Give the backbone structure.
Amino acid sequence: MPRKKLIRITTIPMTLDKILDGQLSFMNNHYEVIAVSSEKDYLIKCAENEGVRYKHIEMTRKITPLKDFISLVNLVIFLIKEKPLIVHSHTPKAGILAMVASRIANVPIRIHTVGGLPLMEETSGKKKLLESIEKFTYSLSTIVFTNSRGLYNHITENKYTSSSKIKVIGNGSSNGVDINYFSPTQGSENELKKLKESLGIFEGDFTFVFVGRVVSDKGINELVEAFDKLTLCTKKLKLILVGEQESDLDPLNRTTLGILKKNKQIIEVGFQKDIRPYLEISNVLVLPSYREGFPNVIMQAGAMGLPVIATDINGCNEIIEHGVNGILIRKKNTAEIEIALLMLKNNEKLYEKLRSNARKMIVTRFERKKICENILDEYKWMEKNHMTIKHKEHFIYVKAEQRVVSE
């Protein structure tokens, strides 16, 4: 008997590779999983790594009406052909396209995961447009997962959808963290020594690391400014930036670009497929982001025993407990970043306390296998209890029994 089909859709394959790593492979034991995304070569690699089928459909991250319409038509044709039981989307653009296409194609179970809301940093007209798109996406879905309690609260408080249609999985996160893959002492001492030497990191250096998109809304302008001020006083500090700049979508300001060129204590290494060596040679992860869903890199760094400095925003403040496994600061606040950097550099007792708590606080709450099992339970429950009925020329989701979907 053919297996029922589960189609996972993301705007770009990096989400499959970095955010959902291992989850498609896990689900493929229970469904026939098909990965859909853009950037064909990267998508093929992701599908091969996960052992699943793929379908390349080009999608853009910007608002591009003509290209978006072509993507939508291609998605509808594909879904009608495949007849999946479940379509599960991630990222805003993939979400609206997937939910519209799967509704047109009469897909029984339509799930969208909210992993972050770019609109939270927008104002006026564009914010209203993005809010309308989010509301429309949610209205077409069977259920909406948010990967943090903060996002759940924001969505319900702003009435983007009803609380009965939205749920946080477990303690949060879209995928948890592989606590065996991300664990201390992964690399050999010799390899780590060579990496340090290649980056100009010397004995006695205290090293901070940032991992993610090197863009303004990740707080890079404030981080670079704060770190640059500290290096006027000491040369025993290093800052590693792991990730690519996105000058077309969210460029850094000119002052930051100038500092990056002149300050030799800031080391840019670009995108890295394996971030573990960079975490292992560092003392503290810094994530001064303006907005997050549920940042994987904080869990990954914590699993490797690193304290974290992060902004006091949803997602971050659900992983980091201030003064226990990290330091929380206000967003867009250069002075607080500077104070936190200096505090962990100079206060050895505090640093050791945060470091000793880091891994155990991740292992007990965000182990990947448990998150995957929780999502699978949701799939199976919906598969067992769903039915579709025609109502005012629309298909709507009806639950077969009362169930509380928000904790």
Remarks:
- Residues 388-407 have pLDDT under 50 and may be disordered.
- The first strand starts at residue 5 and ends at 9.
- The CA atoms of residues 199 and 219 lie 23 Å apart.
